[in-house]
Amino acid sequence: MSLYDIPLRTLTGEPTTLGEHRGKVLLVVNVASKCGLTPQYEGLERLQKQYADRGFTVVGVPCNQFMGQEPGTAEEIGTFCSATYGVTFPMLEKTDVNGDGRHPLYTELTELADAEGQAGDVQWNFEKFLVAADGTPAARFRPAVEPEAAEVVAAIEERLPA
């Protein structure tokens, strides 16, 4: 199954798929509102603004699996992201990224190895998966890697449509 075909839901509960972004480079990030890494929303939003008109989008995936750091309702999450960080990129519903309830999207994404060759479970909030414009997983960046780190920006720019 292609990443484009996996059923998802928006933060407001509407059915969707990554296929809605077919042809774009995506940065899929599991996010949380009450994490020490939450300020990464600022960098994610700057990437969104910088590259959106070139065929790129961030996709935020709230997750409450790491010390309960995303406890809010969909409405609370949406309000927080908009009011605090001015988030304009699409957000999906709260999702499990690890364990028995792992969402099929993350079953596929976690097969991708990071720069050190390690695949498997998401380590923490704000792990980033770059998806190429053809819908294939292309790169994985662990949580401590800032959204605007040179290696993330280079990977995005390398894959942007011509």
Secondary structure topology:
Elements: E1 8-9, E2 15-16, E3 25-31, H1 40-51, E4 56-62, H2 74-85, H3 104-109, E5 128-131, E6 137-141, H4 150-159
Parallel strand pairs: 3-4
Antiparallel strand pairs: 1-2, 3-5, 5-6
User: What best-fitting shape do the alpha-carbon axes yield?
Assistant: globular
Instruction: Count structural domains.
Output: 1
CATH superfamily: Glutaredoxin
Residues in β-strands, percent: 15-25%
**Which spans have pLDDT < 50 for at least 5 consecutive residues?**
none
Rounded mean pLDDT is: 96
Describe this structure in words.
- The protein has four helices and six strands.
- The chain has a four-stranded mixed sheet with strand order 4-3-5-6, with helices on one face. Strands 1-2 form a two-stranded antiparallel ribbon.
- Strand 3, helix 1 (40-51) and strand 4 form a beta-alpha-beta unit.
- It has a single domain (3-159), classed as 3-Layer(aba) Sandwich (Glutaredoxin).
- The chain is globular and about 40 Å long.
- The chain has 162 residues and is of the alpha+beta class.
- One of its GO terms (biological process) is cellular response to oxidative stress.
- This is Glutathione peroxidase.
- Keywords: Oxidoreductase, Peroxidase.
